[in-house]
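FAQ: What does the model actually see?

It sees only this:
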Amino acid sequence: MSGRIICAGLGPGDPELISVRADRLIRTARHVAYFRKAGRTGQARRIVEGMLSPEVVEYPMEYPVTTELPVESLAYRDALVRFYDDWASRLIDLAHTREIVVLCEGDPFFYGSFMHLHARLQGRVEMEVIPGITGMTGCWNATGIPITWGDDVLTVLTGTMPEDDLARHMRSTDALVVMKTGRNFPKIRRALAATGRLNEAWLIEHGTMPNQRVTALSDACEDECPYFAIVIVHGHGRRPESGDAS
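And it is asked to produce this:
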């Protein structure tokens, strides 16, 4: 018997935003793997609580480091390389005889941890990736304001970028999303202030989840930002009510 690996995108956090296909596969899965921090349940596993079969076998893939080392350090990089290499080999061994469903928040191919496994698994095992609604989509909908209008350009940045690079991209775009905030929040806030966009920005914490919070970024505490948070700046392009063609 031969198996395969299926990565199921879980969407932004609300279980009701999981696709019909991913929902069906998760509920019938017999082997499920997911990323998490050591000692934690993990966001992916939390999203599917109550959906898994009582007979399911779980494979928590626990990161060797999260915030213990600087992300730019060689030690951080080497630890993650070994982690992904090890789990790619383990999943391939498992998939020889069974189907493994790997859970991934958001969309697996949009800043998802599964991408690092996918690069190692490709060509070595049968594999399928099920798209998911991105976390940023859930966040900009939480503001109740369209993210782009007309010919607006949308730029997606990561808070891990150098502050000067953040500011440069912020100046040259219409609509803006900043991922990976967390401890990078003060730097993101400074870059927004330097480019005159601070008062346009929104901070969305735990978008689509029960503890969702939407705040004008200028009102947010500078040192407080959870891991699941995204910064949004809406575009202001051509709109029908202004007399322009849509």
